[in-house]
Design a protein that fits this description.
With about 40 residues, the protein is an all-beta fold. Helix content is about 0%, strand content about 30%. The protein contains no helices and three strands. The chain has strands at about 20, 25-30, 30-35. Strands 1-2-3 form a three-stranded antiparallel beta sheet, with no helix packed on it. The protein starts with 19 loop residues before the first strand and ends in a 6-residue tail after the last strand. This is HVO_2523 family zinc finger protein.
């Protein structure tokens, strides 16, 4: 795993697992892509 796939980001809203941040997406290891840049989630 390289730095672009580091975990420890925001938790998945469905299972609370820390998500990966890849390019412009947050990816849950269980649920796949949860958010991308066009989503407003703040």
């Amino acid at each position: 795993m390289d730095d672009s796939e580091a975990t420890g980001g925001r938790p998945c809203p469905m299972c609370e697992t820390p998500m990966y941040h890849r390019h412009c997406k947050y990816v849950c290891p269980t649920h796949g892509v949860v958010y991308d840049c066009s989503d407003t989630f703040y």
